[in-house]
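Standup notes
- DV: blocked on the single-chain target, sequence here:
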Amino acid sequence: FADKLARPRLTVLDVVKGNLNTAEGLADELILGDIRNTPIVGYGLVFWDEGPEHLPKDQALEMLRVWSSQNDHVLISCPWGYMPQGSGPDDYEFHHWGPQPADFRSIGFNAEVFGTEFTGTKDGHGNLIAWI
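- DV (later): unblocked, structure below
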């Protein structure tokens, strides 16, 4: 039982070097890169936190579908609904879409929400989690 309580091997991938710096000492491996061109294969759990909304919807869902076939489990956490952010599609902080549970269920994931849905302003405070 004690082995299950031990910290698992952790790899952190981020497009922003400053975010990686905050994971130093926590992660076993730090990768500066873009998930669109970095292989994510053979992990027990892939956790994509605050990410799907930063890519066009079709691209994000296709990546999740592929990851779910190449890894044991995939877990995502993102805003529930559309929360505007970023200056435009070329800004990595830009939110391209407003995730809904049905989006993730359409590719075989389970999905739940909590809080208050974002509806095009920053007034919401909702979160969507999806997993497979």
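- Follow-up: The mean pLDDT is 93.
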